[in-house]
Amino acid sequence: MASTVFSTALLVGAAAAPAHAASSGAAACQTASWKSVDGTETRLTQSATLHQRGPYSDCTPGYSLTPGTRVVYDCFTSNSYENTWTHVTAYYSNLVLKGWIWDAKLPGGGSYVECPW
């Protein structure tokens, strides 16, 4: 698994992903693999919650990102509910953050490059 940057910041109005994006267990949050293979750069057009541990809404939410936040797509995966999530590098308030965002919250529906396992 690639390294994850953990930083301390104020969590601002975190919005939860819909119930159908729920987790199948804590193990899924700890085993999500990713690699930076896409490189598409964009800016968020709506608020999105970055989950630092895995592609489920039950995984630890790290930050609530605001519209206009610059993100670089790394790759995407499907969880056990067949919801797709993109691993991103986000540049937010002088922080470099890495984590998963539900594709419904991302411009263009997220990455089109599947994460290699």
Short description:
Helix content is 4%, strand content 32%.
Structure description:
With 117 residues, the protein is mostly beta strands. It has one domain: SH3 type barrels (Roll). It contains one helix and six strands. The strands form two sheets. Strands 1-4-5-6 form a four-stranded antiparallel sheet, with no helix packed on it. The chain has a two-stranded antiparallel ribbon with strand order 2-3.
What pattern of helices and strands is seen along the backbone?
A: HEEEEEE
Tell how many strands the DSSP assignment holds. Answer: 6
Task: Specify the CATH class.
Answer: Mainly Beta
Q: Give me the CATH fold name.
A: SH3 type barrels
The largest beta-sheet arranges its strands as 1-4-5-6
Low-confidence stretches: 1-24
* Gyration radius from CA atoms, angstroms: 12 Å
Total number of helical segments?
1
Approximate strand percentage: 25-35%
Distance between the termini: 9 Å
**Mean pLDDT, as a whole number?**
79
What is the oligomeric state here? single chain
Query: What's the structural domain tally?
Result: 1
The residue fraction in helices comes out at under 10%
Report the principal-axis shape.
globular
The CATH architecture comes to Roll
The profile of the biggest β sheet is:
4 strands, antiparallel
Q: Which keywords apply here?
A:
117 residues; mainly beta; 1 helix; globular
Itemize the secondary structure elements and their pairings.
Blueprint: H1 26-30, E1 41-43, E2 48-51, E3 61-65, E4 70-78, E5 84-92, E6 95-102
Antiparallel strand pairs: 1-4, 2-3, 4-5, 5-6
